[in-house]
């Protein structure tokens, strides 16, 4: 039987895991994802994910899990972002800051029984990203997390995902990938 993955389930799980301790909610957006700290218009922090996509919930949560307390007070965590259309140098910078978030996204995906796809996110760029090399770096980070243990917030979400989706404990064999994409 194939498990259905609905963004509303992630909203519920995220609220249960984090709202009380971090005053943060996962919100379905209509356009591009963004993180918005609490302000005069809203008394809680918001992780806004794109278009109701389940995969976007996992990716945006992974960025939140990486961000420290000070960064969680800044719009989009104060991180640099260069949109699609990057040259080779800018693409390399983009990939470097995406290794840890995509590693967590992959871990969350496995914990949820959901297919993970690496994203170089540069369809209109002047260079062709090396997806295999990038996936190797993300995979190495996944293995590091599995060997060293996850930080508290990602570990809390993994436990909730495994409980909700009835998936097995994480192990390295769950993170295989093809040599060609």
Structure, described:
Keywords: Elongation factor, Protein biosynthesis. InterPro entries: EpmC (IPR007411). This protein is mainly α. A three-stranded mixed beta sheet has the order 1-3-2. Strand 2 and strand 3 form a beta hairpin. Helix 2 crosses helix 3 and helix 3 crosses helix 4. The longest helix has 25 residues. The chain is globular, with a radius of gyration of 16 Å.
Q: Based on CA inertia axes, which overall geometry fits?
A: globular
For the termini, the CA-CA separation is 26 Å
Strand content: 5-15%
The total strand number stands at 3
SS field, number of helical segments: 5
Helix content: 40-55%
Averaged pLDDT: 87
Q: Sheet bearing the most strands, described?
A: 3 strands, mixed
Structural category is mainly alpha
- Cα-atom radius of gyration: 16 Å
H and E string: HEEEHHHH
Low-pLDDT ranges: none
The spatial strand order of the largest sheet comes to 1-3-2
GO molecular function: translation elongation factor activity
Keywords: Elongation factor, Protein biosynthesis
Organism: Rosenbergiella gaditana
Protein name: Elongation factor P hydroxylase
Structure described in brief:
The protein is mainly α and 181 residues long. It has helices at 7-22, 54-66, 88-112, 131-148, 152-165; strands at 24-28, 34-36, 45-49.
Ordered list of secondary-structure elements with their pairings:
Elements: H1 7-22, E1 24-28, E2 34-36, E3 45-49, H2 54-66, H3 88-112, H4 131-148, H5 152-165
Parallel strand pairs: 1-3
Antiparallel strand pairs: 2-3
Helix pairs in contact: 1-5, 2-3, 3-4, 3-5
């Amino acid at each position: 039987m194939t498990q259905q993955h609905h963004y509303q389930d992630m909203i519920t799980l995220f609220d249960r895991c984090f709202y009380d301790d971090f005053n943060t909610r996962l919100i379905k957006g209509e356009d591009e994802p963004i993180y918005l700290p609490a302000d005069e218009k809203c008394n809680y922090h918001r992780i806004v994910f794109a278009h109701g996509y389940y995969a976007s919930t996992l990716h945006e949560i992974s960025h939140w899990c990486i961000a420290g307390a000070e960064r969680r007070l800044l719009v989009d965590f104060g991180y640099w972002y260069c949109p699609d259309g990057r040259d080779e140098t800018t693409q390399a910078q983009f990939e470097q800051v995406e290794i840890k978030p995509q590693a967590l996204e992959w871990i969350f995906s496995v914990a949820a029984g959901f297919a993970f796809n690496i994203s170089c996110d540069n369809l209109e760029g002047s260079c062709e990203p090396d997806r295999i090399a990038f996936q190797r770096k993300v995979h190495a980070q996944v293995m590091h997390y599995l060997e060293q243990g996850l930080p508290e917030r990602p570990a809390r979400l993994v436990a909730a995902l495994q409980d909700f989706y009835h998936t097995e404990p994480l192990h390295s064999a769950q993170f295989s990938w093809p040599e060609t994409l």
